[in-house]
Design a protein that fits this description.
alpha+beta; three-stranded antiparallel sheet; binds zinc ion
Length: 116
């Protein structure tokens, strides 16, 4: 049932561009957003960054080393089906899969004033 709810999220990015230290995303409902790469990385949804619950134990998330080169730089973005993107960072971190729903949430949360 949860999966069905999830699939109801139908908004998709139509254009994703990177400029300087920001990612610009235009959505198919016309919403245009930008998010700093730093905010994007700091909110990486993967188990390594978030910590993972295994049974009753919760593993501690890995502390992000902000001084490591490439931490806030995107190497490439790969689409996953039609529901998510996988962001591969220049420091080699490649397990962050951002669903469109999460991406939209992030960009709405962190977006600076819309630019025209
Ligand atoms: Zn991560």
């Amino acid at each position: 049932m949860l999966l069905l709810t999830y699939l109801h999220f139908s908004m998709q990015p139509v254009e994703i561009t990177r400029k300087d230290n920001e990612l610009f995303i235009i959505w198919d409902d016309g919403f245009s957003s930008s998010i700093a790469l730093e905010d994007l990385r700091k909110n990486c949804p993967c188990a390594l960054c978030r910590g993972e619950e295994i049974g009753t134990k919760k593993t501690k998330p890995i502390k992000l080393d902000v001084f490591k080169p490439g931490v806030f730089e995107i190497d490439k973005i790969e689409p996953i089906g039609n529901y998510a993107i996988n962001i591969i960072w220049k420091d080699g971190h490649d397990t962050g899969i951002y669903s469109f729903e999460f991406l939209r949430f992030l960009t709405e949360t962190f977006s600076k004033t819309a630019e025209i």
